[in-house]
Amino acid sequence: MRSRALLALLLPLFASACADSSGASEGSGGTVVVAAPADVDVLIPALTATTSGQAVVQQLFDRLADIGDDLNAIGDRGFRPHLARAWAWSADSLSIAFSIDPRARWHDGPPVTARDVRFTFGLYSDPVTGAPFGPDLANIDSVTVRDSLTAVFWFKRRTPEQFFEATYQMLIHPEHLLGAVPHDALRQSPFGRAPVGSGRFRFVQWERGVRVVIASDTANYMGRARLDRVIFAPAADYPASVNRLLTREADVLENARPEVLPQFAGKADLRTLPYASLTYGYLLFSLHDRGTARAHPLFGEVALRRAFVRALDRTSLVRAVFDSLATVPPGPSPTSIAPRDTGLGQAAYNPAESDRLLDSLGWARGADGMRARLGTPLAFSLLIPAPVRTRVRFATLIQAALKERGVAVTIESVEPAVYTERVGKRAFDATLYAINTDPTLSTLRQSWGGASALTAGGSNRAGYASPAFDALADSAATTMDPAASHALWARAFRVINADAPAIWLYEPRMMMALHRRIQPERVLATQWFAGLADWSIPAGQRLPRDRAILAK
Amino acid sequence: MRASQGARRLSGTVGRGALVVLVVAVTSATLMHLAPGDPLGSAMEGREVPTEVLARWRAEQGFDRPLPVKVGHWLWSAAQGDLGFSFSANRPVIEAIREALPYTVLLAGVALVLGFALGIALAFAQARRPGGPVDRWLGDGALALWALPEFVIALVLIECVSLRMGWLPSGGPGDLTMGPDAPLGVRLADRLRHLALPAATLAIVVAAQVARMQRVALIDAWRQPFVRAARAKGVGETALLMRHAWRAALGPTVVLAGLALPALAGGAFIIERVYAWPGMGSLAFQALADRDPHLALGCVVLGAGLVVTGGALADLVRLRLDPRSEA
C-alpha cells in the first residue's frame, strides 16, 4: 500500500522530468518534413514571389486578419482577428482602424506596434521595393499611427474589398530591423536569409537547396504552434520529392499528381487528402496578331472561337488527363469563387454545330478532310511549356480533337523561360495557360479588362476587350451587396463565355499525400499551408524524430 | 637552365589556360544573353507579377542593357572577382558557388577514389591473363557499365536499395531532421549513408572507364623490354606488375584522373539532380532552368577553370612519372 502511494507521488515527478522544456503539452509536438517543389527565393514577405517561399514566410509573419473558410472577400464578414484583435470602420467607410494585439511580440523581443504596420505599407507600396503584390494595394492611400497599438488605413475609394485589400496581401514586417535598409537593397539584406517575424513559428535555419527549418514559437500570443518543427525540404525534381515520401524521409507531398498516386496505394502509413485550390487552366486565344493592334487572322473572329468551343469535349479531356482529380470550371475562375448561377453561358460540346459554324465561315473541307478558306489552311500553333506534363497531354488531345473538325494544330513546346517571354509579348496563336488566382473575382478586370488589352506586358494576354464585360465587371467590383455583386459577375461571365477569348478547361482537385500520423486541422483552397500551425501529431503516434527538443 | 625551362613551361601553361577560360567566358556570356527567354520568367510560377515590378527587377539585374554592355560589364566584374548577383538564388553568385562546391568536391572526391581503386583492381585482374575468361567477362561488364547512362544506374540503385530494400536514403545530403547538436560520429555516419548511392553511381562509371584504359596500358607495359629484363632477373610476377609495369602504365590513367576530377567537380549534373545532392551540378542545372545568366556563367567559368587546372596538373604528374613524355 505504501509503495503504491509512493509510486503515485513519484510518477508525476518522473513525468515532469521527462517532459521537454519547450512548453509542449500532450496535444503539441512532432516534426513534419514537407517535400517542397523548389527552394524558397527570399524570406522577406514583401518580396517573396514563389509558392515555396510563401509557404515559409506565412508561418513566420502575421496578417492583421485572416480570410475565412468561405473565402469571402467582400466587407469583413468571415475574417478572423490575427495580429489585429479588433477593427473599427469610420462612418464614411473610408478608413479602418486596426487595434494591434498588445501581446504580440517579434521573435527577438520587441512588441509589434502600429508603426510596424505603417512601415509595412510603405514597403509594399514603394515601387522601388519591387513587391509583387504592391500594386494590389493601390486603393490604400496611406496608413497612419493613431497610437502605438492602433494603425489606421485610409482608402481612396469605398469598395467592397477594402478590408481584403488591407489584410490579405500584407504580412507585417519589423520596422526596428528593416527600417534602416534602403528599399532597393532589401533583396540582398541578411534579413532575407534569417528573418525575424511574429508568427506562431519562428525561423531556425536555411540550408540552401537542402532545408528550411522553422520551430514553434512557444510563447506566441496566438498560442504555440501544435507542431514543434516543420522542415521544408526542396528536391531538384518531382520524382525525387515523391521518393522522399516513399522512403519516409519526408511526411508531406503537397501535390500528389495523378500519375504517382498508385505508388501510395498499399502503403499503410501513408494516405492521401483531397483539397480545393484556386488554380485553373484554359486554352487561350490571341485575339490580336502577335501583340499588335491588328486582329489575329484566325482568332480575331468570334464565330471561329465559338466553333472551337463546341469542338472540344472538355469533360472527356479533363477525364483523360486528370481522371477524377479535376473538373471543368464555369468561366474565368475556379468554381469556389465563381457566381453560383448554373447558366453561365458556356457552350456545350457539339461537333455538328462546330462543323456547321466552320462551314458557314467558309472553311471548307478538302480531299484530305482538312479545312481551308481561299487557299489558306485552317491551321494554328499551340504554345505550351515543355516540362508541364498535364499541358502536354491536353495539347495532344486538343490537337486530335480539332483534327477531326478539319483543323491543323501544331504543338509548339518551349522551355519555361521562353514560354513566359512569348506569352508576355503575346507572341503566340493559342496557348495552354494556367493560373493560381486570389480569392476574389476583381482580378478578372486585370486579366480580361479592355484597359490592358494592348498594354505591353499586361495581364490581359488574349488582348480581349469588351465594353459590356468591363462595365459589368466594374459594377460588380464596386457593388457592396454580395448578392447583387454576384449577379453582376454572373452576367459578366455570360458575356465573356459568349465571346470565348479562351476555352476554360480544368480546375484541379489537389491531392496531398502525407504520413498517416499527421492530422491537418484544415487545408484552405487559398493556400494549403495556411493552417499549418494547427496541424498536429497525436502523442501516441509520434516517431523518434518527432521528439526532438526545440532549438533555442 | 632546367629551372628556367620549367618556369617558362609553367607560365606558358597558365597563359594558355587563362586564354581558354576567357574564350569560354566570352562565348558563354554572349550565348547566355542571346538565348531566347525571360530570365525572370520561371521565378514567377504562373503568378501575375505586375509589369512595372518585372521592369524594376530587370533593371536591377542589368537585363535591360544592350548585349555588348551586358557581356562587357559582366566580364569586367568577373575579372575583379565579382561574378554578379543570382536572381534565382537571391545572393551573390560567388556565395552560391561557395555553398555548393564543398558538396560536389566531397561527392567527386569519394567517387574518384572509389572509381579509380575499383578500376585499377579490375584492370590488374584482367591484365594478368589477357584474353582469358576473367579478362573477357570483366571487359564486357566494364564496357556495358560504361555504355549505360549514369541516370539509369542511379534509378536502378534507388529502386532496389532505397525503395525496395530501404537500406539507404534515396537522396539529399543528410537526414533532414537531424539538428546541428547531433554528435559528430552520428552526423558523419549519416553523411556517409547519404553519400553512398550517388558516390557508388559515379564510381561505377569511373571504374568502368579506368579499367578499360588501365588494362590496355598495363598489357602494353607488360610487353616492354624493361619488364622482360626484370623478369629475366627473377623478379616475381606480382612485384613485376606492381613495381615495374604499373608505374609505366599510369600515364593515361593520370590524365584521365586530371580530366575526370574537374568534370565531376564541375557538376555531375544528372546524378546530383536525381539524388537531390545540392552541389555544383544541381546549382548549374537550376541556373539553366531558371535562365539565371549570372549564376550559369559562374558555374561555366568555374568548370572551365577546373578543366584547365586539372589538365595542367595531370600533365605535371605525368611528366613526373615519366620524364620521357616531355618530348
Topology diagram in text:
The complex is a heterodimer of chains A (552) and B (327).
Chain A: H1 2-18, E1 31-36, H2 51-60, E2 65-66, E3 80-81, E4 84-89, E5 95-100, H3 114-125, E6 140-147, E7 150-155, H4 162-167, H5 175-178, E8 201-207, E9 211-216, E10 229-234, H6 238-246, E11 252-253, H7 261-264, E12 270-275, E13 279-285, H8 302-311, H9 314-322, E14 326-327, H10 351-360, E15 364-365, E16 371-373, E17 376-377, E18 379-385, H11 389-404, E19 408-414, H12 416-424, E20 430-436, H13 444-448, H14 467-478, H15 482-499, E21 502-508, E22 510-515
Parallel strand pairs in A: 1-10, 18-19, 18-20
Antiparallel strand pairs in A: 2-3, 4-5, 5-7, 6-7, 8-9, 9-10, 11-22, 12-22, 13-20, 13-21, 14-21, 15-16, 16-17
Chain B: H1 2-34, H2 51-61, H3 67-79, E1 85-86, E2 91-92, H4 93-128, H5 133-147, H6 150-164, H7 184-222, H8 225-232, H9 237-265, H10 269-274, H11 280-289, H12 293-321
Antiparallel strand pairs in B: 1-2
Helix pairs in contact in B: 1-3, 1-12, 4-5, 4-7, 4-9, 4-11, 4-12, 5-7, 6-7, 7-9, 8-9, 9-12, 11-12
